[in-house]
Specification:
Number of strands of chain B: 11
Structural class of chain B: mainly beta
Number of helices of chain B: 0
Shape of chain A: globular
Oligomer: heterodimer
Radius of gyration of chain B: 14 Å
Radius of gyration of chain A: 14 Å
Helix content of chain B: under 10%
Strand content of chain B: over 45%
Structural class of chain A: mainly beta
Largest interface: A-B, 28 and 31 residues
Number of helices of chain A: 0
Shape of chain B: globular
């Protein structure tokens, strides 16, 4: 069964510093998508970044970038120049065609940003 | 514009009440989803609609009844709920529901949620 593991329930970072959130997944599929979603205390889940498994180049979105290691089944999120607004729960998620539309979520990492 | 709206923001209901949650999107998306989320937990998929037809029901109790009146609107009708059903109910939509080929068009965009409390 496909699983997604976020081993850090909580993380903390100083404002303007860099933080990396880890995510590993277990799958026998070769083609899939990986996502990072952010859910601030105001609740709305926002897509941060998406990575196609067939692409070797790591996805980036402004201050957010991923380190995708397909062989190691690792998909970490790096947040550079952390801002107070980055404080949120971050969920890593996985999708493949054999899931019938389901996103498989990790348990989440709660990130706090210290001023 | 990736906006999904949900009403109401908060809902308190008794176990004998009937209420409905509403979700709307105007992005031309043809797939819509209902999730249930407990505090500090990931969302749990409940239902998926594709082209206004129910595509997935994750063995959800019949006291939850989804409805998709048109491609922009998704409702969740609630009846005889239990206190353990108290949660944040999230709606999401995607351009499509790719079941045969992986595609970026099935990236899901979420609404702000309805906080439901069952007394």
């Amino acid at each position: 069964a496909q699983t997604v593991t976020q081993s850090q329930p909580e993380m903390s970072v100083q404002e303007a510093e860099t933080v990396t959130l880890s995510c590993t997944y277990d799958t026998s599929e070769s083609d899939y998508y990986l996502f990072w979603y952010k859910q601030p205390p105001s609740r709305q889940m926002i897509l941060v970044i998406r990575q196609e498994a067939y692409k070797q180049q790591n996805a980036t979105e402004n201050r957010f970038s991923v380190n995708f290691q397909k062989a190691a089944k690792s998909f970490s999120l790096k947040i550079s120049d952390s801002q107070l607004g980055d404080a949120a729960m971050y969920f890593c998620a996985y999708r493949t065609i054999n899931q019938g539309g389901k996103l498989i979520f990790g348990q989440g990492t709660e990130l706090s940003v210290k001023p | 514009d990736t906006e999904v709206t949900q009403t109401p923001k908060h809902l308190v209901m008794g176990m004998t009440n009937k209420k409905s949650l509403k979700c709307e999107q105007h992005m031309g998306h043809r797939a819509m989803y209902w999730y249930k989320q407990k505090a500090k937990k990931p969302p749990e998929l409940m239902f998926v609609y594709s082209y206004e037809k129910l595509s997935i029901n994750e063995s959800v109790p019949s006291r939850f009844s989804p409805e998709c009146p048109n491609s922009s609107l998704l409702n969740l009708h609630l009846h005889a709920l239990q206190p353990e059903d108290s949660a944040l109910y999230l709606c999401a939509s995607s351009q499509d529901l790719a079941l045969r080929t992986l595609s970026s068009t099935d990236t899901q965009y979420f609404g702000p949620g309805t906080r439901l409390t069952v007394l």
